[in-house]
Amino acid sequence: MPKLFEFPPTRSNRAKWALEELHCDYSSEIIDFMKGQQQSEDYKTVHPLGHVPVYQTDHYTMHESVAIVMQLIDEHPDAGLAPEPGTPERAEYYQWCVFASSELDPILFDIMKHTMHLPEEKRIRQIAERAQRGFRARADMLSEVLVNRDYLLGSKFSGADIAIGYCCNWAAYTKILPDHPVLVDYYTRLQQRTAFQKVFSR
Ligand SMILES: N[C@@H](CCC(=O)N[C@@H](CS)C(=O)NCC(=O)O)C(=O)O
């Protein structure tokens, strides 16, 4: 059975959300960051950087949360969570999936570190403010798309909403999401999904 190495609510929740949306059978191993298990010699054989998620099957092992989401969705084409390859809709899908991990994750990481997680004396205001500005610019881009749409690709939920929806969860945690009402509405819609509730309530 495929196995997900995870530590909720970190980015492993992206992979888990896709697994739950697709009703996949999988087992889970919690890598407890509070106990430093991600840096253990054992876990370093699974992921040399000590990161989650890692998704292992009999045929392949993957890290990179968004890539795992996209792969799982491709393995379940009947679920309809991604547009047909080669279509304009697929182009948009790729774009927002990659935007989540390349444009939003690093900024959210900086906001979290420099406004919440680091001891106060180690927080750097300039880094936090630059990241907050960066988030606002990107949230405006997303809001422009979502103002007339329920989901990123239109009326249909897709893997792009898992990728970006995870960022909304992270932005809510860092308290920057409420500055963006269109994203708040979108995130509220995502929170109503059964798979979301199963993954994020733990
Ligand atoms: N780009 C990777 C990032 C993975 C990553 O950095 N995961 C974090 C949790 S969100 C981690 O495992 N950090 C290890 C640590 O904090 O020691 C992905 O999206 O999967």
Structural overview:
- The chain has 202 residues and is an alpha+beta fold.
- The chain has two domains: 3-79, Glutaredoxin (3-Layer(aba) Sandwich); 88-193, Glutathione S-transferase Yfyf (Class Pi), Chain A, domain 2 (Up-down Bundle).
- 54% of the residues lie in helices and 7% in strands.
- The protein has helices at 12-21, 41-44, 65-75, 88-117, 125-146, 159-173, 181-191, 194-200; strands at residues 3-6, 27-30, 54-56, 61-63.
- Strands 2-1-3-4 form a four-stranded mixed β-sheet, with helices on one face.
- β1, α1 and β2 form a beta-alpha-beta unit.
- The longest helix is centred in the middle third of the chain and has 30 residues, at 88-117.
- The radius of gyration is 17 Å and the shape is globular.
- It starts with a strand and ends with a helix.
- The mean pLDDT is 97.
- Residues 10-11, 33, 38, 50-53, 63-66, 101 line the site of glutathione (GSH).
- Glutathione (GSH) binds at residues 10-11, 33, 38, 50-53, 63-66, 101.
